[in-house]
Write a structure and sequence with these properties.
This protein has 113 residues and is an all-beta fold. The protein contains no helices and 8 strands. The radius of gyration is 19 Å and the shape is flat. The protein starts with 11 loop residues before the first strand and ends in a 17-residue tail after the last strand.
């Protein structure tokens, strides 16, 4: 008979470990009222790989890190920009993630959003 995975709690923190270990954390997920509010994913070396903050089930801030612990990129829904860095920590560029279309002035915005 298969073993079913334990259901994560509706509120609080849930920790997942790498298979075969009880000390190497793979992921930590925080939930509030059944929705994920934050998720951290780790490399096997223990350093943070990805940190994502959610609002109403959608990611609003995402930070990605290199295996050496340096910031690789940071993205924000509010600014709609992603900043990218090299493995040595130096800045590369900023990318806009906003839609690439213009709304004509004579049309109501409610048609598009």
């Amino acid at each position: 008979m298969p073993v079913l995975a334990e259901r994560p709690p509706e509120n609080g923190r849930n920790i997942t470990y790498y298979p075969g270990t009880t000390k190497m954390i793979q992921e930590i997920t925080w939930r509030k009222e059944g929705q994920v509010v934050r998720r951290k994913i780790f490399y096997k070396n223990g350093r943070l790989q990805r940190d994502t903050i959610y609002y109403l089930g959608k990611p609003v801030v995402r930070r990605v890190y290199y295996e050496n612990g340096r910031l690789e990129s940071v993205w924000s829904e509010k600014s709609r920009e992603m900043k990218i860095y090299r493995e040595d920590g130096s800045y590369i560029k900023t990318i806009s993630t906003a839609p690439n279309y213009a709304i004509p002035d004579n049309l109501p915005r409610s048609l598009f959003f």
